């Protein structure tokens, strides 16, 4: 089983590798569901890690419907990731009615080639997951990151198992959200090939007190948490 760590920083990426994770999904700002990391962060992680790095391409928080300008930014970011040596792209676009935007998602998949393409958790917003999965298979996506349309993947296990059966080796179902050493074996025993988690812990604040408007919780992917999951799935 492959363990993908959602790393929100340079340190999180290094911790993922040190602890034995098999792949990194690199992003920023997990508190808003993740957005595209800076070019500088992507470069440093690529240069200083040996495991595959997939990069989240999401220009902002909020919904997954993008303006023409935002879509151009996404394409530019994918091009950079290809040039810098990333192994995969994590992205996707929805319509205002929460269906797969077939034209734009197809464009992102084609632009990403030959890199692997993961359709991200926008999938958990779609109105018809069965139909949407078939569409993503037709478009050529390699995997779908999903919690089974629940807050936590363990809560969406039944839906995830149905999607995995429907996928039938045509696309990888990548369960994610709240997976840890306590429940990781459930997903392995359910015959999922991969799992996704941030395995994060809060970073204790510095002694310097910031005004409340800047007082957001910082997290980092934890070496011990990751090692514990690796031990379970191995």
From TrEMBL:
Cytoplasm keyword on record: yes
Subcellular location: Cytoplasm
Domain of life: Bacteria
A Pfam family it matches: CutC
Family annotation (InterPro entries): CutC-like, CutC-like_dom_sf
Protein family according to the UniProt entry: Belongs to the CutC family.
Protein name: PF03932 family protein CutC
Natural source organism: Tenacibaculum tangerinum
């Amino acid at each position: 089983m492959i363990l993908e760590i959602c790393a929100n920083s340079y340190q999180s990426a290094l911790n993922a590798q040190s602890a034995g994770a098999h792949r990194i999904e690199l992003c920023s700002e997990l508190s808003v569901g993740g957005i595209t990391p800076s070019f500088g962060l992507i470069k440093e992680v690529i240069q200083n890690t040996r495991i595959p790095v997939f990069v989240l391409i999401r220009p902002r928080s909020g919904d997954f419907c993008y303006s023409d300008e935002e879509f151009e930014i996404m394409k530019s970011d994918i091009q950079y990731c290809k040039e810098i040596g990333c192994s995969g792209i994590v992205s996707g676009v929805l319509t205002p009615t929460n269906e797969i935007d077939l034209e734009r998602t197809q464009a992102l998949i084609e632009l990403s080639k030959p890199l692997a393409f993961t359709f991200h958790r926008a999938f958990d917003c779609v109105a018809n997951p069965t139909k949407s999965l078939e569409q993503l298979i037709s478009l050529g996506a390699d995997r779908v990151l999903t919690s089974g349309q629940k807050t936590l993947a363990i809560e969406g296990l039944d839906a995830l198992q149905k999607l995995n059966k429907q996928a039938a080796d045509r696309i990888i179902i990548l369960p994610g959200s709240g997976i840890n050493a306590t429940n990781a074996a459930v997903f392995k025993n359910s015959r999922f090939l991969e799992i996704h988690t941030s395995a994060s812990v809060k970073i204790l604040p510095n002694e310097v007190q910031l005004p409340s408007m800047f007082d957001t919780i910082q997290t980092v992917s934890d070496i011990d948490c990751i090692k514990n999951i690796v031990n379970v799935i191995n």
